[in-house]
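Per reviewer request, we include the raw input and output of the structure prediction for the construct analysed in the revised manuscript.
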Amino acid sequence: MSQQNVEIAKRAFAGYNERDPGEYGQLFTPDYEWVTAMQGIENEVLRGREGIEKYFENLDDAWEELRLVGGEFRDLGDR
């Protein structure tokens, strides 16, 4: 993972944990599609920023607390 990708991964974790659709959504193209697979909100097809907002709302309704925890992020070049 390049250093640029390390920073993108860190931003993704932070945006997810803060439930910030603006920050999280900047990491995807406007036409991206996401099929959820998490217990309580599985099998939803979400699209674009509106999908991110809906996902975060549904996530907070289904889970009292849920956070992504990253371990060590390292720049490994092309590996």
